[in-house]
Every structure is written in C-alpha cells, then in structure tokens.
Design brief:
Largest sheet: 5 strands, parallel
CATH architecture of the largest domain: Orthogonal Bundle
CATH class of the largest domain: Mainly Alpha
Number of strands: 5
CATH superfamily of the largest domain: Hypothetical protein af1432
Order of helices and strands: EHEHEHEHEHHHHHHHHHHHHHHHHHH
Strand order of the largest sheet: 2-1-3-4-5
Structural class: mainly alpha
Number of domains: 2
Number of helices: 22
Length: 435
C-alpha cells in the first residue's frame, strides 16, 4: 500500500496548460504503483495524510509527498518520523523547486529520497521509487519501541531545539551537592539578571502575598524556602528557553496565560485542606507542574507550525481538545513530546511523568499528576483555554479524583470558592513574569 499526498485536479483545472505537466508527473507515479499492484491512498492535505499514516502504518510500504503543498512536505516528514508507530515507513518528496539547502533539510528530516520534477524519464523514477520502497523491507521488524527514546532521537534531528539557560545546569549541580549553602544558590541565580528580576517579581506577586517586599534572592529563599525557589528557577528557565522563538507565528501569550492559569489553580487547590492531606511534602511543586505541563505544544507550534495550525483549527471546528485531535490524527501527542523534552533537559523524572500523564493520569499516578489534570480542566472551564473551545462541563477523570481523595461535588465547591482569588492571581502572575 502507498500513500500519495498531492493535489487532485478537476477536469476544468486540467484545461489550464501549466497544470497538465503537473498532472502528467502524478500519472507517472500512479502507473508505477499500479504496475506494482499497490493499493493507493491519495489525499491532498496534511490532516488527512496524518490520519492515513496513523490508520495504515503497518500496511504502508511508501509515502510520496509534494514537498511544497500548503502543509509542507518537510514538516510532514519530521512528524511522521517523530511517530514511533511510523518510524519504518520510507518517505519520498517530489518538487520542481528543490535547492541544495532543501535537499540537505529533507535528508535531515528523514526523507529517503527527493525526486526533482518534471519526470521526463519514467524508468528512472521507477528505479528511485523501488529503492525507496525497498528500504522498508531491508529493516528488520523492531520490537515494541521505547516511545520516549524514539522521540528523543527524532527531536535531535531538529536544528535549534530549545536549550535551558546555564543557570539551570548550575542549580541542578548544586541540588546534588549536600554541602551547598543558601549563599551558593543565591550567587548562581544572581548571575542571570533576567531570571533574578522575574523571580523577585513573581515572589512579590499576589500569588504569595507576603507582608513585606522580597528584595533579594537570599530573602526569597528564606521566605519561600529553597525548594520553591529552585522550582521557580526551573520554571523560568523553561519559559526563557522559548523566548528567542517569539517571532514565529505561534500564540505564545495565549499559551503562557493558560499555563499560568493551570499553575495558579493547582497551587491554590493544593493549599485547600480537602486536597492538602493527599499531597505529600516532597511532591513536585504544583505551580511548576502547571507552568510546564504543555511544553510539548511549544515544540509542535514552533517546529511543526503549519501542521499544528491545522490541528488547532480542527480542534476548534470540532469542539474537541488538542490532545484528542493529536491522538486521532498525528498518532503522537504534545504530552509525549513534552515528557521527552523534559528528559532531554534533565528535569526531574517525577515532573516528566506529570507532563506525560496530565491528560490521562493512570490509577497509580502521583498526586501532582492528578492535581495538574484537575487544574488543567478547571482553568479551561474558567475560560483560560489555548486554541480550544471552552468546555460545557468539567472533564476530569475518576482516577484523578480518587488519587486526590475527593469527589466531583467537593471539587465543584472548591472551584467555586477559589474562582475570584485565582483569577486575580493569574493576572498578577502573568504581569510579574512577562512584564
């Protein structure tokens, strides 16, 4: 079976002279596939192509795509390679516009072949497509893939992937040193002026409401506690790692508002007696968990922009969540990608588990994972959504509620009680971080 991703022509379009040569190239490919006895799935846009890959991954011997369709073939190739279930399907790109840089980018993205058009020699095209098809047969069937390891390997193909600020590495080094002092932490943090000023603004925001102003990192550590300050540095490092991509057409402000809403909601809920008793003292900071739970969307938004835009448009049109559309269409979700990115950044494993499980927490999920799941749903109900419709009801799993030892009525009462407080804190926290 072969997947062909390219434009389909109507009879009227074929009357236009420039379209005839284009259609002839497609006919050359169709004849080859018919000669091979292949069933052909022919689609003309990215969402349908990714649906086909997800549905027929085990049956596809070849994917042939136009490189410069609206959903770019390069983006599609990277996404197909990112999906552990489609890793062995060879991809060939075709175009009349390939440059040397394009050919290099296609190879890095994981394309097996680039076919320059027009196809003047059909026999040579068949030879090249045969070679591409045979690459899938030459690979032994791998065991069930380690999805995180696979995603990490494919993320390494992406040039300019976000990296954490140097202060993050130094903080992690100190956290492993039992002799490290408060002064050691303060000295490292204060070397990064941007994080220092953000941390002080955050510490003085309405989310903490101290009776006096915090004026130094040492002061923040003494009042907030070292663990909270370290988590703040981790959080602000994550935010900072994406700042250089601000010119890319991705709704970063809306994204971070949702993230802050989730973090503030989680932190506020964690302080309520009904939930606090289920929350261990050494749990991942709920504010940090909320702030970074969706970082996989940032990877999709910045490095798979045109395809992710289709996912967002589809989610809004159908009234579904992005997670649902990713699962249905891409075969890989922002939760999986975010968890892999957390591993790449060497964030705590417990935090990577929160990121990976916040949409569908298992029965043995940590209390923080359950809490972020609940907070994510709650802040969407409050209208803090990201490219999704506001849901009609609070969609939380029974497993998450059980993990927090509360029922739906208790949660509903809690959310009503904290609504005004949380909204005020969200606005103040957003201003503190992004001033």
């Amino acid at each position: 079976m072969v997947l062909l991703v390219d434009r389909k022509f109507t009879a009227d379009q074929l009357k236009i002279r420039r379209n005839q040569a284009y259609a002839d190239d497609l006919l050359t490919c169709l004849r080859i596939f018919k000669k091979w006895g292949y069933d052909i799935i022919w689609v003309d846009e990215g969402i349908e192509a990714m649906k086909a890959v997800k549905s027929y991954a085990s049956k596809l011997s070849l994917i042939l795509m136009e490189a410069y369709m609206p959903t770019k073939g390069m983006t599609m190739t990277r996404m197909i390679r990112l999906n552990p279930d489609a890793t062995s399907i060879p991809v060939a790109l075709m175009s009349s516009q390939f440059t040397t840089a394009d050919l290099q980018a296609a190879a890095k993205a994981g394309a097996a072949e680039c076919l320059p058009k027009p196809f003047t020699d059909s026999s040579q095209i068949e030879i090249k497509l045969t070679a591409v098809r045979n690459t899938s047969h030459q690979q032994p069937s791998p065991p069930a893939p380690d999805r995180v390891a696979h995603i990490l390997r494919e993320l390494s193909r992406i040039d300019d992937l976000p990296v954490m600020a140097p202060v993050f590495s130094e903080i992690e080094r100190l956290s492993r040193d039992p002799k490290a002092t408060t002064e050691d932490y303060s000295a490292v943090i204060e070397l990064d002026m941007a994080i220092t000023s953000q941390l002080l603004r955050l510490s003085n925001s309405a989310a903490f409401s101290f009776s006096r102003k915090i004026t130094s990192i040492t002061d923040a550590i003494n009042l907030l506690g070292l663990r909270t300050v370290v988590n703040f540095v981790r959080t602000l490092s994550v935010i900072g790692s994406f700042r250089k991509y601000s010119r890319i057409p991705f709704a970063a402000q809306e994204f971070w508002l949702h993230a802050i809403a989730c973090g503030v909601t989680a932190r506020t809920l964690a302080g309520r007696p009904q939930i606090q008793k289920a929350f261990p003292a050494d749990a991942i900071d709920p504010f940090m968990g909320g702030m970074v739970h969706d970082i996989g969307k940032m990877i999709f938004g910045y490095f798979f922009t045109d395809l992710f835009q289709l996912v967002m448009d589809t989610a809004q049109a159908q009234g579904k969540t992005l997670y649902e559309i990713e699962s249905d269409v891409l075969g890989i979700t922002h939760a999986e990608v975010g968890s892999a990115l957390a591993a790449r950044w060497q964030l705590p494993e417990s935090l990577a588990a929160v990121i990976g499980g916040h949409h569908n927490p298992p029965k043995d999920a940590s209390p923080t994972t359950a809490l972020i799941h609940v907070a994510d749903a709650a802040c969407r109900m409050m209208g803090y959504t990201f490219k999704e419709r506001k849901p009609d009801e609070l969609l939380v799993s029974d497993a998450a509620l059980a993990r927090l030892n509360i029922d739906r009525n208790t949660l509903s009462t809690l959310l009503t009680d904290i609504d005004a407080e949380v909204r005020a804190q969200i606005a103040d926290t957003f201003s503190a971080i992004f001033k």
